[in-house]
Amino acid sequence: MLLQLYSAQAAFVNGGATQARSFAKVTASDRPPVNGDDLLKGIFFEVKKKFETALGVLKKEKVTIDPDDPAAVARYAEVMKTVREKAGLFSDSQRIKYTIETFTNGIPDARTYLNTLQEIRVKSGLIDHLGIEPLMMEAVEKIEKDIKKPLLRNDKKNMATLMAEFDKINKKLGIRKEDLPKIEEELELEIAKSELTELKKDCIEAMETQLKREEFKDEEMPDVKTLDIRNFL
Q1: 106, 132, 190, 204: most buried, per Cβ within 10 A?
Q2: Structurally, how many domains does the chain consist of?
Q3: What integer pLDDT is reported at residue 173 of this predicted model?
Q4: What is the mean pLDDT of the chain?
Q5: First vs last Cα of the chain: how many Å apart?
Q6: Domain enclosing residue 135, as ranges
């Protein structure tokens, strides 16, 4: 939620004019017209290229399937970061930022922006534990009451006042922008631990199923931690 907060506040002042373009190397207006078949073919080859790139990294890097070992979790997170970077995939913070900027692109006023942000949060399954959204809306309402009209995102003077109000909210809640890298790192480790847990569960279920077959009845189940997933790719 904190990553979403700062991504939202950063996008807030862009006025909804150019946010999504920063994530696209080539925009729709820059591309020549294409028919449906060519478009689907392009999407297929792009996905195929990303998949092969990711697979190439995973075939080279050793991953220990042990979600209870902090070192193994950190190593897995590092490998997945390499996969994302080489395959051109978003990290969670980048995905949040992209989603916010895409769905709020073109929204002219602050109130609609915040309502849209809330919809994005709910659909993403995120919980506003700190009650940040009501405080942000109160700040918007305060300024709109003073200026006696809707607060537009291209109103530089009053948007600057709003961002100052947001800074007060962040300070009151003990939220510091400089903590973001640490928060993002902790999030990546939590995700890595969760993924390793699921991978361990899947491996155990697969081995248990195999040991039930007649030809493997005398075999012992190996420790998941000793498995090298590179041998199975």
Answers
A1: 132
A2: 1
A3: 84
A4: 81
A5: 35
A6: 2-21+48-232
